[in-house]
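hiii so my PI (J.) wants the whole complex modelled not just the main chain, which honestly fair. so below is everything: four entries, each one labled with what it is. i double checked the lines twice but i was tired so who knows lol
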Amino acid sequence: MPFTIGETALSGFAWACILIHMTVRVAVAGASGYAGGEVLRLLLSHPGVEIGALTAGGNAGARLGQLQPHLLPLADRVLAETSAETLAGHDVVFLALPHGHSAAVAAQLGPDTVVIDCGADHRLTDAADWERWYGSPHAGHWPYGLPELPNGREKLKGTKRVAVPGCYPTVSSLALAPAVEHGLIADEVVVVAVSGTSGAGKSLKTNLLGSEVMGSLSAYGVGGTHRHTPEIIQNLSAIAGRRINVSFTPVLAPLPRGILATCTAPIVGEGNVREIYERAYANEPFVHLLPQDQWPTTAAVLGSNAVQLQVTVDEDLRRLVVVAAIDNLTKGTAGAAVQSMNIALGLPETAGLSTVGVAP
Amino acid sequence: MPFTIGETALSGFAWACILIHMTVRVAVAGASGYAGGEVLRLLLSHPGVEIGALTAGGNAGARLGQLQPHLLPLADRVLAETSAETLAGHDVVFLALPHGHSAAVAAQLGPDTVVIDCGADHRLTDAADWERWYGSPHAGHWPYGLPELPNGREKLKGTKRVAVPGCYPTVSSLALAPAVEHGLIADEVVVVAVSGTSGAGKSLKTNLLGSEVMGSLSAYGVGGTHRHTPEIIQNLSAIAGRRINVSFTPVLAPLPRGILATCTAPIVGEGNVREIYERAYANEPFVHLLPQDQWPTTAAVLGSNAVQLQVTVDEDLRRLVVVAAIDNLTKGTAGAAVQSMNIALGLPETAGLSTVGVAP
Amino acid sequence: MPFTIGETALSGFAWACILIHMTVRVAVAGASGYAGGEVLRLLLSHPGVEIGALTAGGNAGARLGQLQPHLLPLADRVLAETSAETLAGHDVVFLALPHGHSAAVAAQLGPDTVVIDCGADHRLTDAADWERWYGSPHAGHWPYGLPELPNGREKLKGTKRVAVPGCYPTVSSLALAPAVEHGLIADEVVVVAVSGTSGAGKSLKTNLLGSEVMGSLSAYGVGGTHRHTPEIIQNLSAIAGRRINVSFTPVLAPLPRGILATCTAPIVGEGNVREIYERAYANEPFVHLLPQDQWPTTAAVLGSNAVQLQVTVDEDLRRLVVVAAIDNLTKGTAGAAVQSMNIALGLPETAGLSTVGVAP
Amino acid sequence: MPFTIGETALSGFAWACILIHMTVRVAVAGASGYAGGEVLRLLLSHPGVEIGALTAGGNAGARLGQLQPHLLPLADRVLAETSAETLAGHDVVFLALPHGHSAAVAAQLGPDTVVIDCGADHRLTDAADWERWYGSPHAGHWPYGLPELPNGREKLKGTKRVAVPGCYPTVSSLALAPAVEHGLIADEVVVVAVSGTSGAGKSLKTNLLGSEVMGSLSAYGVGGTHRHTPEIIQNLSAIAGRRINVSFTPVLAPLPRGILATCTAPIVGEGNVREIYERAYANEPFVHLLPQDQWPTTAAVLGSNAVQLQVTVDEDLRRLVVVAAIDNLTKGTAGAAVQSMNIALGLPETAGLSTVGVAP
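here's the output for the full assembly
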């Protein structure tokens, strides 16, 4: 386990030197999927991590290189079966499993292991909510891996369990949190979020085939039926101290990665919108309010942990409109997971993470 | 000029036989752009049309085959200069010109020529609106080429002038018209419409380069600043008989064609939503409410004049959500133009138009 | 069965009038796949065809609208089980089945039914070739549906059986046939053909997922192992009267439709290359040699039955380079099938087919 | 200037600690383009570099954040005019300028500055070749930045001038070098390389618009007319010690980044192909021969400096077929530039570079 150096002013690679002889040993369960692959991509450039066991379900026994050919340094690793035995003996275990599988695995890992669940199982605080939306018994809730929410960072320090947020809740909550916190907007917001296809995972479904996806746009989970809806509501309501309703519609677009969320609500409070957002995120390493003439693009955050956002007011309607972009696999999943691990362990929060996108 | 046969029950190609010796002579101004090219693509399969002069601005003198290589039967046509002389002597003139150029050209064409303006110049009824949004003097308004709006078809019969709707107003207005007409929704609606890049035309702008567009999503004209906003408001307010506010945000996605609009508003009236929509479009040849379990995709309407839509109610919020898909170049521009021409001339409304998309 | 009107000079829709009261009744087996869907798309605009039974394997019982939402006029059709009973009583049956399934079905259809096999089963003339490449007993060979090959059209007139060519053999053979026929090139040619994903069908394979395909290029069937290799060799060798070797490599690219083939071989014979190609295709309705300054794009042939090609000579190497573009689903599959049907039945060859692409 | 530590066995971030207090000061001319942007993206994760002046031509005066929004840490930098003054005082200057501009700038920078030219000006050794292909006087040739070629690394050590290879020559030369070196193949090879659009730069050309590019494939520079042809020939001929002819055809495909090259030639020599390739690249950090059952994809090298390749023999034809994938902006341009800088300065060759791609 590493020595905690806190959030020192060390910039660039200075902390790399300090960490170099103390590495966290990490396992990844579900290493053959998109979320697991992205966790590994980030860990490969993390200076304080040693990558241990990699496990899978149906793909156990395969070389990682065949399933994740972009992870060249790990190409010869062979995937083990996901089990308590293979995951034992690590400081940190990332779970990138289908919904409903995390609790059982976590229970076997012991209380000293840091367990970071990229799935949905421990996100919702309300058991009834969980049962309504997922149709199974609630596994309980864990500290929520979105440190940029009000008091979000505190809950993660020293924790042994992290529930990584959903990708849509991440971008929507960060887009609206400052407005909600300052009582700026009414209780009913509308979010339409356009996403690349990797959010749906490596599932073999006809509607996810390249031939179907390219050249097409489609909505799904319309009418408040997408499972990320209660999670967005939970986040915003917690900030507001009252119920915030959210009309949420996800749209699938022909790109592998990226979410662009358009979030709008009537303005009911006072205050300079831009100042409120500037203040809210002034010290955040990953959330960037763009200069006034510039709008976010998902290409600019590809592979990066950054959130790029812009706010404006539709003066005719007195409505707030916030547009925010993330990479659904990075800040939307694996980046948040690594960021949360860093906070939980007392590592520099940005270790292994970047605000530089791969564009064009 | 053709003999009017009205909307007879002739199915298939029966009317083709009747029309075969009476053809409408058509010119297209702006034949080198995307809208002009799509008008030509449709006219090439129109049984009652003879394609006359093709004109352009900077591209005058070029072979059409070099600029529109998909229009093989017209490849050897040479583009003439857009002028009153080259456009004279046609029964119908399609104007696919930059905004602000149509009125001057139309004035020279004489009152007996059917002039169909694919540009914005004659869409807005209110001169002050026009001046606010386009910053130039109002050229007046012409009958609006969206026959599926309440009483929309009547205004087009026999007209010599047509203002072809904007692509976003087409899909948004058709998505919401039945709800507005039946007093179903509140006065403030939110529309987020995701579009392919051809809606921006063949403009040489960095943000429209393939390298910038592919793999990226971006919003533009945010905060009620897109010029299609007043046109949507105009359409819905005319139906309602009162002001309907619209929060409109367009999003650019990596595909050449297609718009998917998500339209939502609080429900305030009574009535079975599905029945209202079924009735509204039961007899429309191009607007299709999908079966209840199916959501629209833009791929399904590629190159077709169809609108595919689906409605639902978010019961938690009592909000209406309508999702509608069109091809922005077909039903969103050139298809509406041809459809309007057909109505204006008394030809079968569907001549030269299809409800069959090119997928996958 | 229609009255044969031959290839008269009737242009436009004239023949539609003649055909209007005599329709060919057509069934499509495999209507839920990409090839079957494209056959239906084309038949929907064919003036002399009535669409009868639509059948499927695993999708039998489903509404076509759910599986092929772009075929709106057929949306309410229900797919029947593929069987001799459901396919009986039609003048023409299109088979769009997995390889190996056609012969058994065809055997049950009777000798008077025109059977058009979009699969590979009856393409190869040599039984040993078939067994080597497909690993099953040879079902025999049928007249080959590529009328633009030397004497190709003759073999199709009046036939009751058609083997529709593979998509890569179509574009490669047409690109090289004139050069081979005139003894222009050496016996070893290299073809690298880049294809969209629909050529792989609606198969649920990880490497065909949108997330995998978009933003990626990959080769497959490298080293002469793709099953279309012997078919290209067969076509070119038949023209040459001697064995022509072909090094063939297919590449998968992120677009749904289209193949662009680059075909090159050392020049060994005499003759003006351009003149040879001009003469070869001067009277072909679907094969277009582009003007000298223009190169083919697949976008220009999207949804069209056209082949666009260009030839040049690398003077430093005295090599011929031909680049040709088709839509793999149209001229590469379903367009060739309909074209062959037209010839077989004595209908106008271009009925239901277009040389107009859907671009951009 | 850094202390040379050679190619020590220090793995991970160990050398970062050594370099941390001695940074190379670097300027980038042409920072607003794709090549310049990619150089900066890589430098931002290079532990031994301090980013100094950023210059541009027409974009001088602009914030970098507006032009390269993915380079968040540099967003507030303002672009200076490209001039000897602004570029003075740096240890290393990267030139990412249009062809023909590098020599004049380099001449003003003094012999002690390491100048790394991402353009073509100093790639060709033969003045007549240069004049034939580029139509201007030859500026001379510089050490060639492809260390993986035979003796390639030696030429770069300690050099003050580097000519960064073209993207197509990089992938083609690495794909064929081992075969040429071992006399395995005949003197005439065929290369067909499919590329993403960023290779064409941020040029405002109609054929590079997203609407034109998406859904389309096209060839260009066909018939041996692409300017990278003589560079490939130069590389292979230098290895062979005799003239190697290359038939080269580039194809444009709808993705922003990535080149997949298919390279084929008749086998004339003896030797185990796989062993030859294995040995050739066994110790190369960036060139990876894949396991026998696996073929390269460009997605796997997105943003990485890796080359993934696979070799096979078409036994029917006794032809070698090599397929290789790179990211044209990384290994194809900016990665090679940084790698060459590292070698020239005696830094660890892999500093700032990765073999991990961003997928899916």
